[in-house]
Design goal:
It is a single chain. The chain is built from 14 helices and 5 strands. Helix 5 runs parallel beside helix 7 and helix 13 packs across helix 14. The chain is elongated and about 75 Å long. By secondary structure, the protein is of the alpha/beta class. It folds into 3 domains: 109 residues, Rossmann fold (3-Layer(aba) Sandwich); 62 residues, Helicase, Ruva Protein, domain 3; 120 residues, Zinc Finger, Delta Prime, domain 3. The N and C termini lie far apart (63 Å). The chain has a 5-stranded parallel beta sheet with strand order 2-3-4-1-5, with helices on both faces. The protein is 58% helix and 9% strand. The longest helix has 35 residues. Helix 2 links the parallel strand 2 and strand 3.
């Protein structure tokens, strides 16, 4: 039997592997495929050993080993019925001959990374996980948790472990005990600028500069500015429709809608200009990027 687990959702792949291992009566053999040599394939794929009548062989990143991956097609028909071969391939090139041959003989499951469009799926998953461990959580708390943490399953899982020890789970103790994800911090920063609260912008920049990557944060802020401009250009269209066009969750875009209406197209264009100037300066000058981010936000605050 051949199982292929692919995709960028490492949490779901890790869980799927765990289920396979738990269901196997024996010790799994774990192989780094990137370092595998062609001469090792017979021993891995061709049946039982003196110590086990059935084997579970887990090979990770085999496709990164170009020589072995190319030759692997010839071995697919020789995998013993006593061997359960599991290939873990986060980034699998579907154009290769080996992948096309695997489609004919293997069970292939793709685990895609969640995006903002999967917020509802993430909320359902949180509810199911908490039910599974016997904890009560209401929908408002689920919503608050996903908005604070985001849709990354590893981060959500870690947050659930922290919340599981509490007597009760509420939006208030989620805020108290669970650290906000960078996107949430970015929105708070951008919203402070849109409200004209320059002192808070300076204070938040000072705190964020201690642990955040300025270029990553600037990218997230630029995304907020772009969404603001898109909303202002959409005029009377509902924010949910604009969110669908942009491929983002309507909740986050809905929070920007009041500011887009207040600023209008001209105001939003000034915001975009401020960020474009900061972007150009980051690429062409030696100025501290945090200073450039602060200048762009202060310009936004006075529009």
């Amino acid at each position: 039997m051949i199982t292929v687990l692919t995709g960028e959702n490492s949490f779901e792949i890790n869980r799927a592997v765990g289920q396979i291992v738990d269901g196997f009566d024996g010790t799994a053999e774990r192989i780094d495929g990137s370092e595998l040599e062609l001469k090792q394939l017979p021993d891995l794929l061709m049946g039982a050993t003196l110590f086990a009548s059935e084997r579970l062989v887990i090979i990770k990143h085999l496709s990164e080993n170009k020589a072995v991956w190319t030759a692997f097609s010839d071995w697919l028909g020789r995998v013993s019925s006593d061997v359960h071969l599991v290939l873990i391939e986060p980034k699998l090139d579907k154009r290769t001959v080996t992948y096309k041959d695997l489609q004919k003989v293997a069970e292939i499951t793709e685990y895609k990374a969640w995006t903002e469009r999967d917020t509802s799926k993430a909320e359902q998953w949180v509810m199911a996980e908490m039910t599974m461990i016997g904890k009560v959580i209401d929908r408002s708390s689920v919503h608050a948790l996903v908005q604070r943490v985001g849709v990354d399953q590893w981060a959500l899982y870690q947050a659930l472990q922290k919340l599981a020890v509490l007597d009760a789970i509420t939006p208030e103790n989620i805020t108290e005990h669970i650290e906000a994800n960078p996107a949430e911090n970015v929105f708070d920063l951008f919203e402070s600028a849109l409200k004209g609260n320059a002192p808070k912008v300076k204070q938040m920049i000072e705190i964020l500069s201690l642990g955040e990557d300025p270029y990553r944060l600037f990218g997230l802020l630029s995304g907020q500015a772009f969404q603001l401009a898109a909303l202002s250009a959409a005029e009377d269209r509902p924010s949910a429709e604009v969110a669908k066009d942009l491929g983002v969750h309507p909740y986050g875009l809905g929070k920007l809608a009041p500011y887009a209406r207040r600023l209008g197209r001209k105001g939003a264009q000034k915001v975009i200009t401020a960020f474009a100037e900061a972007d150009a300066a980051m690429k062409t000058s030696a100025t501290d990027p945090w200073l450039l981010i602060e200048h762009a936000l202060i310009k936004t605050a006075v529009i």
